[in-house]
Amino acid sequence: MSKDHERKGVNEHSKDEQLEQYRMDNRGKKMTTNQGLRVSEDEHSLKAGVRGPTLMEDFHFREKMTHFDHERIPERIVHARGYGVHGYFQVYEPMTEFTRAKFLQDPSVKTPVFVRFSTVAGSKGSGDTVRDARGFATKFYTEEGNYDLVGNNIPVFFIQDAIKFPDLVHAFKPEPHNEMPQAATAHDTFWDFVANNPESAHMVMWTMSDRGIPRSYRMMEGFGVHTFRFVNEQGKARFVKFHWKPVLGVHSLVWDEAQKIAGKDTDFHRRDLWETIENGGIVEYELGVQMIDEEDEFKFDFDILDPTKLWPEEIVPVKLIGKMTLNRNQDNVFAETEQVAFHPGNVVPGIDFSNDPLLQGRLFSYTDTQLIRLGGPNFHEIPINRPVCPFHNNQYDGYHRMTINKGPVAYHKNSLQNNDPSPATEEEGGYVHYQEKVEGRKVRQRSESFEDYFSQAKLFWNSMSPVEKQHIISAFCFEVGKVKSKDVQQQVVDLFANVDATLAEHIAEGLGATPPDKNKESNESFHSPALSQANTVKTPVSRQVAVLVENGFHGDEVQQVLDALKQAGIRADIISQTLGTVTSEDGRELEVTATFLTTDSVLYDAVYVAGGKQSTAQTQKAAKGFINEAYSHYKAIGAANEGVELLALAAGSTEEPGLVTAKDEKDLARFNQAFIEAIAEHRHWNRQV
């Protein structure tokens, strides 16, 4: 097979071609049963007379109803609320020095990917904007087989050993006696688990931070969490951690906003992703790796195999090695997002595992989970899971088998079929596990090097900006304030006194609990600027602005502002009191996107109040609350001409950070530039009292 032909199997179109033979295109087709029999009637069941009983012989009714009765599969126990999108990945330069993985060698090859974003705790019907960790799972359809990078938006986890995972999930899920609360950890059992399992302290700091309420999936960092290995052609191994860096930067909601969005638009994050791509936008992440030579495994003051620890980027730099572009929405949520089966054990030559005890457990549990969800061992044959490269083995039969195997031989070794399919050598691309030397007694215990539970939690706290610290304190007070047990509340205060005394004091104050022992806090002084969102990329691209306008607006003003926003890559929605069109004082018309009844300021990144005496007079009552809410969430607000008066009335000021005004149309060029820069800032925390 030629190299060009091999590449054709893994470019961005090949997956579409593979899926096409499994898709059913009904356009212009006659209806049939699942057996291919043409159906003459689909409105009425077969009866004994027009008012008689339905007959058992109506095979079409039975088939249709049976399929309906069974069309729902069990939702995932965790990560049930998910959303998927297609795209491709390209490496920047050959990674031959570090790994033999083929998809990381040729910058001209576009490897197809499918990514599933998700929340962790809630059910499939829960809200997108709840405070939670987020899943970030990527399936690479490579020419060597499928590779799954199954990660989260937080680089560490709650527990160190997979045997504790059922306990963790039972604790954060709705309490079994009343099935409440849904998609929330603000209840007794979760915080009781935290207080009695101190290894969770670091992850809890992350989830209580702004990272727990991301602005969108497009502005969310991703991490492989675990320590893996890169292995090159010479057999040299390096420990590696994976990072996804969003090109748009890492940005979050504020808590009041997140709660309101959950009521206004439960599908906020999935809608944002869908509409961005449907409107021709792209979603981009750079893949980065941190690498540690095996001989340096023990030179750090933390265990590099501990999943509750990160490798500070200032100590172990992130090398950006490629970019992932997501540019095509799924065609069917059930067939793709619900049936996609990820597994950390789906690797390719050149990527191997470490002895991280949480990773080791995941290597078992993911396959075990799919067996019950997807009905048996053949879930790899579902189109979304099927590799783009051929696969051959002696695994036959089972539920939902798609492949029709031919011939009498289904075993190894054999002579009847010349021992085919036969194992491949390492030179032929066969996967060979890294030959790590392993020895020791069989024990049920953890390494003492895993016992430092608080220094990296303190490192995270040290790395936060003052605003981010205040948000963490408020999150603790909200979450633990929902706990009914005073004893559990006090245990939480006492636990986080080991992280930072000031933090614990504020939590105690908010709960009315006993102040903590100040002598317990970690003495960790290191801080990592990479952990703070204050240092992230800031760009106006893909931001969404609500334009508040009514009949009689200034046509030239509004058109200039809309043109400037569009040129900056910002989407503007026209918001008015009724749908249809609004007309300027000089006769120009704009189509209204939404009304004050059907949308809300929490769904936008910024607000622009258009000028026009008649316009502002008509919109004043409806717009006042809209503007005030955007102001209270520290968003950029722009106003021109008479709109400045409305801004002053609603926000009580026009001079604070992020409030941009223009008194007349001669000032619009400056206004547009300043407004776009204010939108790019995401929030204007200097307004926070």
TrEMBL record:
Residues 1-28 have a biased composition (Basic and acidic residues). Residues 1-44 are annotated as: Disordered. The keyword Heme applies. Its EC number is 1.11.1.6. Its cofactor is heme. Keywords: Heme, Hydrogen peroxide, Iron, Metal-binding, Oxidoreductase, Peroxidase. It holds the Pfam family Catalase_C. Residues 32-420 form the Catalase core domain. The keyword Electron transport does not apply. It catalyses: 2 H2O2 = O2 + 2 H2O. Decomposes hydrogen peroxide into water and oxygen; serves to protect cells from the toxic effects of hydrogen peroxide. Belongs to the catalase family. HPII subfamily. This is Catalase. It comes from Bacillus atrophaeus (strain 1942).
